[in-house]
Sequence to fold (287 residues):
Amino acid sequence: MASLTLLEQRKLLTDPLQAGVIEVFARTSPVLQYLPFQNVAGNAYQWNREKTLPGVAFRDYNETYDESTGVVQREVETLKVFGGLSQYDRALVKTQGNLNDLRAVHDSMKAKAAALDFTKYFFSGDASADPTSFDGLENRLTGAQVLDADGEPLTLALIDELIDSVVGSPNVLFMTKETRRKVNALRRAAGQAIETVSSVFGVQIDAYAGIPIGIIEEDATGEPIMTNDIYAVRFGAGEFVGGLQAGPLEVIDQGLSGIHYTTLIEWICSFAIFHPKAAARLKGITL
Fold:
């Protein structure tokens, strides 16, 4: 199934304003650096999630097989309208200089705020409290995909168990800086070397068992997005954890209206968990 991350989508764009904003989204959010998006026709996407595999067996000659049919579960994900208006007073243009320079500053600020908000909702979104938004991993993951340490200290064994809860292997481990420091301290105490890998932007970042560590910090208001929980996620549109969109993120110059120059930044989007073991959460740890 064709799918592209934001950085891959950016390479296909000819509008420098749109391309610049999309790059800010990706640079601001570790989630959006990895999350691939597929285009959806309409305002919702339906698919069948594998629930129970059909049975198979050996048979003797001249015998037949017992009928066995797998079970699938019908899933629906509704797209949400997300974004905002970037506005700047025409008087600032007359007193502070170039319109395009001011637009770049204000649009970048709006894009950073939006990317941080998307990241917050990706982890802790609650559609029951805000029907205009989507549920995050905290509300989607259940059962064996949630490991509860019940107040016990973080250990490397718990991290290994979290990784093993994801089918195949996760692409990223998401955690706070404080949790990363604890992970590194545990590795040093165990005589393990601190690993690094190259990020999508070509810089070296910490890793564990070869898996990149995505650092989640604060939202646009300065509030922490995550607690000390750790999330392990395998990304893949239509297969694991994938984004849904009604076309690429839009950046529209609406020109001068009243006293403001206005840029509309809007994205009709959501995400889905296509495989029941595509992500896992480790909660209740103490550092």
